[in-house]
Automatic annotation (TrEMBL):
<comment type="similarity">
    <text>Belongs to the acyl-CoA dehydrogenase family.</text>
</comment>
<dbReference type="Pfam" id="PF02770">
    <property type="entry name" value="Acyl-CoA_dh_M"/>
</dbReference>
<dbReference type="GO" id="GO:0006635">
    <property type="term" value="P:fatty acid beta-oxidation"/>
</dbReference>
<dbReference type="InterPro" id="IPR013786">
    <property type="entry name" value="AcylCoA_DH/ox_N"/>
</dbReference>
<dbReference type="InterPro" id="IPR009075">
    <property type="entry name" value="AcylCo_DH/oxidase_C"/>
</dbReference>
<dbReference type="InterPro" id="IPR045008">
    <property type="entry name" value="ACX4-like"/>
</dbReference>
<dbReference type="InterPro" id="IPR006089">
    <property type="entry name" value="Acyl-CoA_DH_CS"/>
</dbReference>
<keyword id="KW-0560">Oxidoreductase</keyword>
<keyword id="KW-0285">Flavoprotein</keyword>
<feature type="domain" description="Acyl-CoA dehydrogenase/oxidase N-terminal">
    <location>
        <begin position="18"/>
        <end position="126"/>
    </location>
</feature>
<dbReference type="Pfam" id="PF00441">
    <property type="entry name" value="Acyl-CoA_dh_1"/>
</dbReference>
<feature type="domain" description="Acyl-CoA oxidase/dehydrogenase middle">
    <location>
        <begin position="130"/>
        <end position="223"/>
    </location>
</feature>
<protein>
    <submittedName>
        <fullName>Acyl-CoA dehydrogenase</fullName>
    </submittedName>
</protein>
<dbReference type="GO" id="GO:0050660">
    <property type="term" value="F:flavin adenine dinucleotide binding"/>
</dbReference>
<keyword id="KW-0274">FAD</keyword>
<feature type="domain" description="Acyl-CoA dehydrogenase/oxidase C-terminal">
    <location>
        <begin position="242"/>
        <end position="382"/>
    </location>
</feature>
<dbReference type="InterPro" id="IPR046373">
    <property type="entry name" value="Acyl-CoA_Oxase/DH_mid-dom_sf"/>
</dbReference>
Length: 389
């Protein structure tokens, strides 16, 4: 695709060097990902052969401060997430889990020694990370109902429990596991290596969204973790929430990217598809759909741009991240639906790509906090009253 959907030139907020990074990401997604992703999506397989190309882009941990990351802006990081999702939401999710959740946990909650030990290899994508928080029976209420336990045993810990919906888990080298200390009842973070005895994964089958993301269920059966691998700065769920705050902004950007991808494919289709002797792009109702989509994308992208600017200034709040995630995913859902509508029956064929965006949007709509939960977070901030049960 050569269409641009940055109608207000918001990428101009980046300096020229960062704009070049964004262009390289877009070119990689167009040239390397788009030709192969439908096949992998259909077969529910992750395209491991694309990882070296992602590594060469140098975007893992790009907003992590030096010396362990590139120390670039979170605005650039967000726009990269958008460009990845514009090409494919599964690739964007893979990078969000590795670079945002896993590396972010080490950066925000690790000791200096742990950062030195893990972050350079994760930045080079020599080690791939995953993030184990959600459980089979707990999602939105995980802070209160976490059942995975950590028991101190000598100079280490023993972990028991189950995690679900964990992206990258089946092949990740390092998995950040959040568990409740049986003595203090506090939530702690641990880095578990993939070959640890008692650690096993089962890939979740029959998904209708993000089919190229290998979400897995993790079983922890007496997994021993040395104290040196406990994240030293993770001592309560507030520390977990600090990681989620930053990545929630990234999901909002991914929602913009998913909407942009669907819109750009629909616009290209409208310019080529002829009915009644002329391109359907010349029809009033088709133009109405395109403008509605572009309006959703532009407003969401503007919202996310300001959110990232606040994040770079150290002023972003949970409520601001939640508003961006809730609003952007609702607008994404509308936009991909309109793109499918514009394409008629062809919209459900993978060869036209939009059907994949429609399906994947359902996952982005729900993960990193549902619309309802994010709404209550914002509602509490604006009213001063908590509506949580």
């Amino acid at each position: 695709m050569t269409v641009s959907s940055d109608f207000y030139d918001l990428a101009d907020a980046l300096d020229p060097a960062d704009q070049d990074v964004l262009k390289r990401v877009r070119a990689f997604m167009d040239d390397e990902v788009e030709p192969v992703i439908n096949d992998h999506w259909t077969r529910a397989e992750f395209p491991h052969q694309l990882v070296p190309g992602l590594r060469d882009l140098g975007i893992a941990g790009i907003a992590v401060p030096e010396p362990y990351g590139a120390g670039r802006s979170t605005l650039l990081d967000g726009m990269i997430a958008m460009e990845l999702a514009r090409g494919d939401s599964s690739i964007a999710t893979f990078m969000g889990v590795h670079s945002g959740l896993a590396m972010g946990s080490v950066q925000l909650c690790g000791s200096e020694e742990q950062k030195q030990r893990w972050l350079p290899a994760m930045r080079a994508m020599e080690l791939i990370g995953a993030f184990g928080l959600t459980e089979p029976d707990s999602g939105s209420d995980i802070a209160r109902k976490m059942t995975t336990t950590a028991r101190r045993d000598g100079d280490g810990w023993v972990l028991d429990g189950r995690k679900k919906w964990i992206g990258n888990a089946s092949f990740a080298d390092l998995v950040v596991i959040w568990a409740r200390d049986v003595e203090t009842d506090k939530v702690l973070g641990f880095v578990v290596e993939k070959d640890a005895p008692g650690f096993s994964t089962t890939v979740i089958q029959d998904k209708i969204a993000l089919r190229s993301v290998l979400n897995a269920e993790i079983t922890l059966d007496g997994v021993r973790v040395p104290e040196a691998d406990r994240l030293q700065g993770a001592n309560s769920f507030r520390d977990t929430a600090a990681v989620l705050r930053t990545t929630r902004a990234g999901v909002a950007w991914s929602a913009v990217g998913c909407a942009r991808g669907a819109y750009e494919h629909a616009l290209s289709y409208a310019q080529q598809r002829e009915q009644f002797g002329r391109p359907i792009a010349s029809f009033q109702l088709v133009q109405d759909l395109l403008v509605r989509m572009l309006g959703n994308i532009t407003s969401s992208m503007t919202l996310c741009t300001r959110l990232s600017q606040l994040q770079d200034a150290g002023r972003m709040t949970d409520e601001q991240a939640s508003l961006a995630k809730a609003v952007s995913t609702v607008r994404m859902r509308e936009t991909v639906g309109w793109a499918r509508e514009l394409m008629g029956g062809n919209g459900i064929l993978l060869e036209h790509h939009v059907g994949r965006f429609v399906a994947d949007a359902e996952a982005l709509y729900s993960y990193e906090g549902t619309r309802e939960v994010n709404t209550l977070i914002v509602g509490r901030a604006v009213t001063g009253h908590s509506a949580f049960v």
